[in-house]
């Protein structure tokens, strides 16, 4: 009951996100430009009309949609393998202490790669000052990997990304850095990290603790202020990744069919699955949008994260000339969602509360 007002606001938020993504489509460059340097422009409305006027395409999409809906309804009704699901969730949640390390690797590694390759967050973005770009990527990336000054470094990284995005819309392609940096800023370095080692030295009766001017005066008060918000890390991750997936599906496929058709042709994807190129693009786009909406609302979050991982594996590693290193952040962040689950303000949380209420009603003694 408590989440219904939030749900209404969240629906409005989702609509705003989708509209914003569509509006930005013409300004932001597509992922497929990594592997297709140029392609013939294709009029979006004409492409969609052609694709959706094909009876076979409509049948496949319709059957796929009905099948997904039926499977979800069947799962909610039967709840098969309850114990298996519970053990899986418990096991994933037991890795919570390693979450900061996983997040630092997920963001630090691609930043180091970006620095050595000379691009700014995304391979599509080359700056006019390559030396600074290299030093920024390598410096911020290695500091995150070492876990030294983690929260400060993550904040600097986030602000740098946002400033860059204001000047270069193509950076929206690397939007996953926003939830990544935010989550790291909330959680800190964790363990193992240089911050953890320094904190242990500063907190104990050591020589270092007598000369450290930072730990008790700044670090401890800051951690106390941030602590109440660490529970929002799952929300930050899934909302950020949900936006990224919706962008991938709408802006880069459904609204950018020319480049998408070029990818299908270049890798002869119709030989892998013998369907029309239009069905490839529409199907892939709708699948990514569906996964993005599921993450945005926190519906079957761990399942959506697992599907995300599968999509990344097949679409990125299946393209031999795709810069996979640039997408390590996506792999790492969906892995983090496997650990955290959906968190608050989610369909999963509502379903859990409903289950607990039902169990309580079933076990409560009947009134006289």
Tell me about this structure.
Keywords: Cell membrane, Membrane, Transmembrane, Transmembrane helix. It comes from Halogeometricum borinquense (strain ATCC 700274 / DSM 11551 / JCM 10706 / KCTC 4070 / PR3). Pfam families: DoxX. This is DoxX protein. It is a multi-pass membrane protein. With 368 residues, this protein is an all-alpha fold. It has one domain (20-73, 88-347). It contains 18 helices and no strands. α7 (150-167) runs antiparallel to α8 and α8 runs antiparallel to α12 (233-254). The radius of gyration is 23 Å and the shape is flat. 36% of the residues are buried. The model is unreliable at 26-30 (pLDDT under 50).
Q: Structural class of the secondary structure composition?
A: mainly alpha
Mean pLDDT: 84
How far apart, in Å, are the first and last alpha carbons?
A: 27 Å
Got a strand count? 0
Number of H/I helices: 18
What composes the largest sheet? Answer: none
Give the ordered list of helices and strands. Answer: HHHHHHHHHHHHHHHHHH
Radius of gyration: 23 Å
Low-confidence stretches: 26-30
Total domain modules? 1
Shape: flat
Helix amount, in percent? over 70%
The proportion of residues in beta strands is under 5%
Protein name: DoxX protein
Membrane topology: Multi-pass membrane protein
Keywords: Cell membrane, Membrane, Transmembrane, Transmembrane helix
Main location: membrane
Brief overview, please?
With 368 residues, this protein is mainly alpha-helical.
Annotation keywords:
mainly alpha; 71% helix; single chain; 368 residues
